Amino acid sequence: MSLRLRLALAGAFAILIALGLAALGLSQLFAAHVERRAEAELTVHLDQVLAGLDLGPDGLTLARPPADPRFALPYGGLYWQIEGAQGIERSRSLWDVVLVLPDDTLNTGQVHLHRLPGPPGQTLLVLERSVTLPARLGGGAVRAALGMDLAELAAARRDFITELLPFLGLLAVVLIAAGWVQLSVGLRPLRGLGDRVAALRAGKAARMGQDWPAEVRPVAAEIDELLTARAAETERARSRAADLAHGLKTPLQALMGEAERLRSHGATDKAAGIEDIARAMRRTVDRELARTRTAARAADALCDPAQVADRLIAVLKRTPDGADLEWHQDIPPGLAVALHDADLAEALGAIAENAARHATARVRFSALPGNATVSLCVADDGSGIPEAQRDALVHRHARADTSGTGLGLSIAAEIAEAAGGCLGLSDNTPGLIVTLTLPRAHAPRP
Q: Is residue 344 within 8 Å of 357, Cβ to Cβ?
């Protein structure tokens, strides 16, 4: 799972939990508010009931009942009850039910709030007050109670939650979308980090640079230091390879001279053995030199294959194999491949030398540029190479015939592969086409 998706899911989960807790808290606050409003309403009704009391022939009576019609409707949801020494008076809405008040002691004017069972199926919120009657009402203390069905409060709470949930759902969608946008903006530098690393690999950039957020800048700096160290190590490896090649050339040349001296004295077999050993050593040295120079290709490596081909043709025209051939160079100027000039000269030179050795009349250089690669083709009109031998020819120490070392094409193939490309062989009818496919280079960013 991607980092962005994990953060998005975690954020969405946290938003849903937070909104769920908010809904629960708002519901509790609304219920408390409704209960306070109900208590205030009960107080008003109780004051009206007490103000409407009168003394009749049979005792206390309510001369002026409250205006709310629920007091007159059996089990209507609002109820009053007066309990004193002369008996109990209650609202018509209580019908045949008597409120059983708790056995508690109230001082005069003191108010208690209870939750008591009422008419069947109802639980009441009851406001109880102790009142001392005036002399005109017979005096004495009474307990006045006024109750309200709690179902009304529960219905109000349910309605509030029902109306609240769509808004919370919409808020959740908005917050999750905003979180996704925030993640996209916040994690954009990470995508840029991957793009810059890809540009480094493709040779489109030389370094990561410093144009990064503070959290990403240390990573970019470490990568730049790694690239610097790698470039320095590559340069040392190239220098050591060059020193090795130069150090072995003189001993190998001495061995070839010794073989020639033995041959002049008639020791042909011994001379041939020494020459084979020297050639094998030279092949190994040349191959390792090519591998060392190309295994860690620099990010800013680029060269113009047209210029390299022009230099190679100028040299090959002066060799015995190339002097009598027609050379055609059709590579468009301005192309750039991601390879050092010397490495391309070695790879293309090995292919051109092989073409010159086998061509009958002409050798042609051409190029097929693509979006990401450039295919450099060297075609000759010689006898070609059987298809069964082509794969083996580009591998280590392979040879197409006994007259050559067979090293040139394998070195060219290895240089191409180290640079991220490949080498291919195809028919020219007559002759052979050797195609060197290399990554196309771009001007590196500073």
A: no
